[in-house]
């Protein structure tokens, strides 16, 4: 809902002053756009921190005072640092929501006309469906003279997505009044030149510097009154006001940052701080970063800023704790949530904590631009690609430690996602970001060609070991987080693309990804509705030679689940309590084994194929004891068990081999009863 986004953004930016934007209400070009009956585009452009968002926020408030305009008004405020509101899909969703909340007949129209498409909005066709809905809604008789306001168009998605949105603006400008803002980017200007000059107006804040400067001066006058160290000292207040006005250069953000510094400055130090403050945002950022580099916690500040800058969306405090604890473990082993909150506050000139979800974000896109540009060597001493690798490695480590079968303790495989609520505390909360975005970081860490030969991509290494042990648990977490579509689809495709070529060192991991890709696309529709069904699907429907089949076994009565852990041991979990009941150590299984598990129909025994000779181990599930070791056929070279299972009465075990041989054993006596040669 754009109304909530607007409220949150403006609360973060501080008090809104009506006087700071009212100058535009008297601007001739703006009034020409506003009062004409023709539709068209009015583009407000200016540099970072010049007050574009405050300006559009004030105009939206002014529009809402007019009932005639308000009922046909939709708006959206983009923010590049927040992946939830920085995409073209998010913009169009928000505009449509704004319209249908004010016109109930539009809601009925959309539900009726698009009832078969609404469940596809998160898929690859989402943009095209939403664009079609938007075009039809803005032509509906219930919505005469629609007005759309979009702030920070330059912060909307990647270049391709922004072009899609610009095309929509151009194509609908004959019937929709558009008010947009952005930095003065040539690409946006080129696209907008296609609009007929009679329907295209723009306002360059640089050309209206006098008006902007007056607005900034008003902002300074108000802000200085709220600095505790200045109260009661008229002379120092006057000096502060005049100094800020002389150095601000018409930049609201510069003033806000300096005022933030002054609020944490003692009265006796105010003059020194004013003298040190440089003009220009970049110079101010450099000064603040230099101040942080002189603190005793300078190293952890650098880690904190590198994590926030690399993250795909704002991290919640508990997610940030996961990353900092891992990357800082060589220096300090224990950080608390309160420690993380204090560290973020120490970096308050760069970072802010949202009140609604306790997520950490840069105060402005220009801060992130500075971190990824002029300050990149300070923030990423080993390079951005290496930071992505650390984010990937941290994510896998955290997920390996926390993820498990039925992590919410649902027990019922038929549990419907619409009835599932996270327990308190939510075990997925510290790793929610890891579950959704670890593949993105892996992909970015391999963007240079040479990186693709790194050890962590090879058979038996970091990636392969995680997938063998936790692949199904990861899919369960995505389903519970309502991120199976589209994030899960994108992640599986990225893994497939990353390992598209085979090599002798990646044969098994490539085979696993190929099986995983097929399994995911076969099962994703019902997995997204019934998360626990994926375990039964892996066991019941997958080919026994599939890599997915070998990751898990579920007993016929669903009272036990067996799976590998990261050390190569087999863990047996209770299907009822969700607790681990047994661990069968790797040393007991033999170093080289192929885990093709089979539970007996009475759920008391488990058979595992082992070793190069095709031996079969029989384990007692409840006690974890090895009951029998059935020897495979005497044959030269390596053997692989293609199939092993129990008879219906749990009294016999049969194993088939890739050589065509079949052997049958009696469980009670341990004797081989039949040995059929090909």
What structural keywords apply?
single chain; 678 residues; alpha+beta; Rossmann fold; Arc Repressor Mutant, subunit A; five-stranded parallel sheet; four-stranded antiparallel sheet; 20 strands; 14% strand; Quinoprotein_ADH-like_sf; Nephrocystin 3-like N-terminal domain-containing protein; WD40_rpt; repeat
**Mean pLDDT value:** 85
Which superfamily, in CATH terms, is the homologous superfamily of the largest domain? Answer: P-loop containing nucleotide triphosphate hydrolases
Q: Tell me the CATH topology of the largest domain.
A: Rossmann fold
What is the CATH class designation of the largest domain?
Alpha Beta
Structural classification: alpha+beta
The helix count comes to: 26
Shape: elongated
Main sheet: strands, sense, barrel? 5 strands, parallel
The count of strands amounts to 20
Helix percentage:
40-55%
Protein name: Nephrocystin 3-like N-terminal domain-containing protein
InterPro entries: NPHP3-like_N (IPR056884), P-loop_NTPase (IPR027417), Quinoprotein_ADH-like_sf (IPR011047), WD40/YVTN_repeat-like_dom_sf (IPR015943), WD40_rpt (IPR001680)
Organism: Hypocrea atroviridis (strain ATCC 20476 / IMI 206040)
Keywords: Repeat
Describe the structure.
The chain has 678 residues and is of the alpha+beta class. The chain has 5 domains: 2-204, 3-Layer(aba) Sandwich (Rossmann fold); 211-288, no CATH class; 289-381, Orthogonal Bundle (Arc Repressor Mutant, subunit A); 391-554, no CATH class; 583-676, Thrombin, subunit H, CATH 2.40.10.480. The protein has 26 helices and 20 strands. The strands form 5 sheets. A 5-stranded parallel sheet has the order 2-3-4-1-5. It has a 4-stranded antiparallel sheet with strand order 9-10-11-12. α5 (88-102) packs across α6 (104-113), α10 runs antiparallel to α11 and α21 runs parallel beside α23. The longest helix is centred in the C-terminal third of the chain and has 23 residues, at 507-529. The N and C termini lie far apart (67 Å). The relative contact order is 0.06. The mean pLDDT is 85.
């Amino acid at each position: 809902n754009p109304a909530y986004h607007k409220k949150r953004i403006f609360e973060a930016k501080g008090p809104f002053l009506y006087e700071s934007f009212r100058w535009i209400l008297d601007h001739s070009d703006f009034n020409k756009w506003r009062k004409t009956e023709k539709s068209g585009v009015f583009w407000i452009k200016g540099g970072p921190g010049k007050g574009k968002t405050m300006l559009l926020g004030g105009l939206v408030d002014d529009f809402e005072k007019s009932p005639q305009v308000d009922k046909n008004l939709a708006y959206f405020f983009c923010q590049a640092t927040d992946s939830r509101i920085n995409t073209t899909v998010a913009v169009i969703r928000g505009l449509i929501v704004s319209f249908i909340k004010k016109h109930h007949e539009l809601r009925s129209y959309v539900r009726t006309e698009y009832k078969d498409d609404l469940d596809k909005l998160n898929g690859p066709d989402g943009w095209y469906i939403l664009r079609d809905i938007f075009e039809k809604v803005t032509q509906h008789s219930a919505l005469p003279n629609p007005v759309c306001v979009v702030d920070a168009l330059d912060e909307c998605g990647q270049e391709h997505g922004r072009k899609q949105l610009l095309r929509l603006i151009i194509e609908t400008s004959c019937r929709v009044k558009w008010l947009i803002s952005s930095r003065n980017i040539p690409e946006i200007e080129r696209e907008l030149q296609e609009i007929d000059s009679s329907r295209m107006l723009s306002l360059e804040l640089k050309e209206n510097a006098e008006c902007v400067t007056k607005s900034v001066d008003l902002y300074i006058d108000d802000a200085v009154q709220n600095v505790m160290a200045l109260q009661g000292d008229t002379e120092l207040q006057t000096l502060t006001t005049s100094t800020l006005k002389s150095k601000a250069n018409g930049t609201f953000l510069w003033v806000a940052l300096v005022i933030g510094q002054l609020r944490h400055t003692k009265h006796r130090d105010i003059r020194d701080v004013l003298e040190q403050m440089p003009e220009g945002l970049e110079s101010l950022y450099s000064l603040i970063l230099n101040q942080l580099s002189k603190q005793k916690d300078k190293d952890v500040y650098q880690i904190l800023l590198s994590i926030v800058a690399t993250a795909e969306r704002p991290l919640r405090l508990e997610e940030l704790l996961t990353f900092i604890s891992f990357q800082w473990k060589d220096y300090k082993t224990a950080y608390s949530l309160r420690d993380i909150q204090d560290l973020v506050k120490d970096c308050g000139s760069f970072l802010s904590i949202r009140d609604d979800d306790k997520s950490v974000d840069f105060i402005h896109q220009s801060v992130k631009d500075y971190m990824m540009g002029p300050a990149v060597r300070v923030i990423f001493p080993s390079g951005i690609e290496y930071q992505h690798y650390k984010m990937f490695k941290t994510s896998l480590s955290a997920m390996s430690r926390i993820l498990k079968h039925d992590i919410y303790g649902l027990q019922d495989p038929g549990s419907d996602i619409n009835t599932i609520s996270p327990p308190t505390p939510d075990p997925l909360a510290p790793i929610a970001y890891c579950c959704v975005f670890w593949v993105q970081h892996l992909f970015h860490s391999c963007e240079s060609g040479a990186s693709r030969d790194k050890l962590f991509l090879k058979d038996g290494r970091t990636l392969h070991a995680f997938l063998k042990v936790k692949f199904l648990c990861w899919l369960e977490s995505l389903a519970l987080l309502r991120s199976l579509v589209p994030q899960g689809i994108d992640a599986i495709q990225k893994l497939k693309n990353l390992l598209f070529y085979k090599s002798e060192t990646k044969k098994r991991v490539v085979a696993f990804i190929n099986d995983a890709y097929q399994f995911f696309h076969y099962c994703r529709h019902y997995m997204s509705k019934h998360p626990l069904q994926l375990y039964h699907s892996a066991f019941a429907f997958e080919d026994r030679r599939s890599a997915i089949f070998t990751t898990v076994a579920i007993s016929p009565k669903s009272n036990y689940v067996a799976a590998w852990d990261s050390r190569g041991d087999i863990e047996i979990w209770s299907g009822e309590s969700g607790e681990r009941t047994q661990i069968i150590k790797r040393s007991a299984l033999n170093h080289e084994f192929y885990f093709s598990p089979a539970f007996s129909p009475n759920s008391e025994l488990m058979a595992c194929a082992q070793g190069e000779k095709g031996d079969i181990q029989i384990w007692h599930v409840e006690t974890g004891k090895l009951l029998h070791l059935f020897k495979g056929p005497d044959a030269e070279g390596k053997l692989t068990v293609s199939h092993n299972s129990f008879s219906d009465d749990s009294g016999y075990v049969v194993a088939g081999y890739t050589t065509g041989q079949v052997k049958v054993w009696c469980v009670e006596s341990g004797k081989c009863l039949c040995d059929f040669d090909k």
